[in-house]
Amino acid sequence: MNVFRNILAGSRYLVIISVLGTLVGSIIVLVYGAVTVVSVLIEIFFNHIVFTTEEVKIVAVSSVELIDLFLLSTILYIVSLGLYRLFIDPTLPLPGWLEIGDLNDLKERILGVIIVLLAISFLGYVVEWKFGDYSIVALGLAIGLVLFAIGYSLTAGALNSKSTQSNKSKDENPVVDNQQ
User: Fold this and answer.
1) What's the pTM?
2) CA distance 156 to 147
């Protein structure tokens, strides 16, 4: 039985596969974004001498898509750091805004970035939108529903966390009856 316990305890290191996968994915998306920035700059300044409002839209859409790429890279990086800290090394130093103590903390960080990613993606569709195309309304409603669900999930999780902390502090500090 002790051998089985040791196997289970050591199996947590299998998460290193996820850590490396998300880290490599983050690096690939980040490099792809950097290469795209360079190609957009070359396209703007060397291939187009005359700047028109249509080209401004192309630059705006490209910029929004680049933000999407960099945010996706950030999500993958946060997942990599969070999984490493939770399963491999809890002493991994992280910035104060990225403290991850459990899977709920990691989920909150990921969902927060996904909210921004969805909003920026919708902005990209708005920039390309042509008057008379009402499919943007359906897209906006769908994204709005997803954002509402994520927001509700985050709020419910925060309320649940506060209630759990409140119950823990009550259990740790029992009220002493001073009446004699």
Assistant:
1) 0.70
2) 14
Rounded Cα–Cα distance for residues 180 and 171 (Å): 23
Backbone angles phi, psi at 155, to 5 degrees: -65, -45
Give the CA distances from residue 90 to residues 23, 94, 100, 116, in Å, rounded to whole numbers and listed in that order: 18, 10, 9, 28
Amino acid at 81: L
What contacts 24+ positions apart, CB below 8 Å, involve 25-30?
25/76, 26/73, 26/74, 26/76, 26/77, 26/80, 27/73, 29/69, 29/70, 29/72, 29/73, 29/76, 30/69, 30/70, 30/73
∠ CA 36-42-43, nearest 5°, is: 85
Summarised one tens digit per residue, pLDDT across range 68-118 is: 889 899 889 999 999 999 889 888 888 888 888 888 888 888 888 888 888
Q: For the packed helices 53-87 and 103-128, what is the interaxial angle rounded to 10 degrees?
A: 170
Nearest Cα residue to 28 out of 65, 67, 77, 61: 77
